[in-house]
């Protein structure tokens, strides 16, 4: 049966309203609230957890809870490599990752992982908030991951069950690395025996003697309690690889422009919060491990270490695009 004239009028009005709202990027029917699941490898009180919780709070407020995000801290949703796969499939919606586990998937992430590339944290931030970040975001988008902002991860140094002062001391030692070819070659170039393992397996592997050491920044060394089993921390500061706060492209595709802007702004603001918390936590973690009696071996001369890194640059920064990015980063002042 034909709609009555008044019903026809109502239908027309509804259609017009839908079209008008559609034009400004909103849908007529109140959109059903979306529930997003977030992955975090660290505990909630780690600077990255603090950043992520600030991000999800801001997104909730600014979308009137249309996008409700919940972060599962402490790797509750699995280890890092699985989490990356899940982000690509869209079964995890957002996450914070270190960039090293992307080394084999997104070539430009190798550049910011390169040993002894950055002069200091300020230099790293300039690169990742600038040309390096732009290039990496493009690479990540190709594998289904949308980078929204960049988190700090300090400098990574070696920690071991026996004292290490020179590369010669490392010879033959089994050192855990993240799953990345660059890291395997880097550790080999230092004379060690690289052992790729998930983060969550490092403590027991140190305890059982499967490995003799690992490498990480102060906050990770402390928060994981690795310092209880690997009692020597040598300040090699060999890599300043940063981290990304990212969203699955599966989700991103279904957001309107206004929602995307809200997420981008909240992510950037969360990075400011994370970086502040990071600087503070670095100091606190260092104090905590010193109080626990760890031997800190200060490496003041890094030249013998960086001299061994030539093959790593030759292999991972040889390609013209990557070499240009390295040059661009070095020229940042
Ligand atoms: C920490 C990073 C984390 C990595 C971990 C590792 O924040 O994302 O998974 O190192 O070494 O510093 O696996």
Automatic annotation (TrEMBL):
PANTHER family: DICARBOXYLATE-BINDING PERIPLASMIC PROTEIN, PTHR33376. Keywords: Signal. One of its GO terms (cellular component) is outer membrane-bounded periplasmic space. GO terms for molecular function: carbohydrate binding. Gene3D superfamilies: Bacterial extracellular solute-binding protein, family 7. NCBIfam families: dctP (TIGR00787), TRAP_S1 (NF037995). It holds the Pfam family DctP. GO terms for biological process: transmembrane transport. This is TRAP transporter substrate-binding protein. Residues 1-28 form the signal peptide.
């Amino acid at each position: 049966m034909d709609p009555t004239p008044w019903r026809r009028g109502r239908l027309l009005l509804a259609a017009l309203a839908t079209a008008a709202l559609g034009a400004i990027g909103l849908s007529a029917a109140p959109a059903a609230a979306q529930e997003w699941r977030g992955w975090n490898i660290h505990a909630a009180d780690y600077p990255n957890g603090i950043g992520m919780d600030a991000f999800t709070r801001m997104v909730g407020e600014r979308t009137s809870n249309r996008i409700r995000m919940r972060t599962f801290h402490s790797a509750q949703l699995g280890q890092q490599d699985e989490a990356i796969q899940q982000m690509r499939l869209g079964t995890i919606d957002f996450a914070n990752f270190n960039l090293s586990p992307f080394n084999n998937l997104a070539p430009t992430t190798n550049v910011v992982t390169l040993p002894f590339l950055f002069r200091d944290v300020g230099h790293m931030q300039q690169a990742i908030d600038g040309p390096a970040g732009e290039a990496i975001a493009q690479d990540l988008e190709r594998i289904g991951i949308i980078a929204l902002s960049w988190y700090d991860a300090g400098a990574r140094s070696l920690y071991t069950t026996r004292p290490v002062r020179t590369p010669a001391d490392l010879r033959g030692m089994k050192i855990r690395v993240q799953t990345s070819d660059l890291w395997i070659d880097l550790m080999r170039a230092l004379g060690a025996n690289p052992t790729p393992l998930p983060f969550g397996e490092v403590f027991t592997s140190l305890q059982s003697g499967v490995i003799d050491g690992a490498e990480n920044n102060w906050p990770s060394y402390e928060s994981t309690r690795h310092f209880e089993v690997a009692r020597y921390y040598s300040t090699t500061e060999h890599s300043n690889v940063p981290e990304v706060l990212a969203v699955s492209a599966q989700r991103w595709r279904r957001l309107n422009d206004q929602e995307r802007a809200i997420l981008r702004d909240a992510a950037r603001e969360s990075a400011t919060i994370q970086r502040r918390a990071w600087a503070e936590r670095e100091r606190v973690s260092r104090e905590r491990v010193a109080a626990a009696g760890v031997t800190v071996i200060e490496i003041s001369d890094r030249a013998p270490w960086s001299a061994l890194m030539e093959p790593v640059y030759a292999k991972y920064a040889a390609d013209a695009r990557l070499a240009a990015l390295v040059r661009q980063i070095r020229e940042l002042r």
